[in-house]
Amino acid sequence: NPTTSNSSSSSSRRRSSKGAAHVLKLLRQATGVRLVEAQRMITRTLKFNARSDHDAETGAGMRRRTTRWSMADEEENANSQSHSHTHADAQSSTRTFFGRQLQRAIPQSSASAALKAEELWSLGFEGQGIRVGVFDTGLAAGHPHFRNVDEMTNWTEEDTLSDGVGHGSFVAGVIASSRECLGFAPEARLHIFRVFTNKQTSFTSWFLDAFNYAISTKVHIVNLSIGGPDHRDLPFVDKVNELTANGIVMVSAIGNDGPLFGTLNNPADQNNVIGVGGISFDDRMALFSSRGMTLWEVHNGGYGRFKPDIVAYGMSVSGSGMQGGCRILSGTSVASPVAAGVVALVAS
Fold first, then answer.
1. What is residue 247's DSSP assignment?
2. Cβ distance 168 to 149 under 8 Å?
3. In contact, 339 and 309? CB cutoff 8 Å
4. Cα–Cα distance list, 52 to 226, 263, 327 (Å)
5. Is 309 a catalytic residue?
6. Catalytic annotation, pick one of 167, 191, 220, 231
7. Which residues have CB under 8 Å from 9's CB, separation 6+?
């Protein structure tokens, strides 16, 4: 209330704080409540590293980055640039991990053409009847590339459904674009879940609410081009388990923190999630692509297991721009929707 005096406002805040503390105490004492955790903020940072194609293959010129619940994807400008880390940089720097990231997008062509999706299209299979949930930065209303956007929902604090970042539009395009840069399943039914703001931030609770809604709407496939090393975010991890237990196929980016081992991102490191790594169009493993072992199992007294589950084209892939047209990106954020698009196409 803008007319409230400062003293009244601070008094109100104190009462609110006491009330919240009382509610938390009651929740922790409730027999039906297993765990009460503080709200987690997810900050997604996008890195733009200027590098050449030669650097992309050799690993030269790479710079270490600190992740903080970011969406990992490296955008490519016109003169062929990409993103990763050198082994030396990774060893000489102390990494600090705080959360999840969108795995970002480097220049070449259509993944659907490279994998010969048109052979299934010619037989009449184009993703018909398959509902795909895209958890990302949203999508512009009436985007010209998409035939079937069944629903767009906003779970953030911003009053918009549109994509002000470009990440969500690109990911949706790789899965189901029907024009210009073709996706794998152009007839798939898209459900757009906007869980990141234009400032590239999110909260675990937004994901939990959106996951619940995805379960209730009975989507078949969920793509998460996000990730982070925080496998101890138990509410998030448990909700992923609930989602897959309801028969939903979850596909997620394995992370852009390679080439060292032990750099897997969550939720792609979970057993019930298809964790997707990235390769180039000449079938070489992308240096930026994270790889095993699964640290959450090591921390629980196990040995860890191999991940990613599969690899897909994740370097210099074309996809949809925010309002139309095509752009070129690289990263495991790109590889993940390639795999999700294939799943949708084959499922149809």
1. T
2. no
3. no
4. 25, 24, 17
5. no
6. 167
7. none
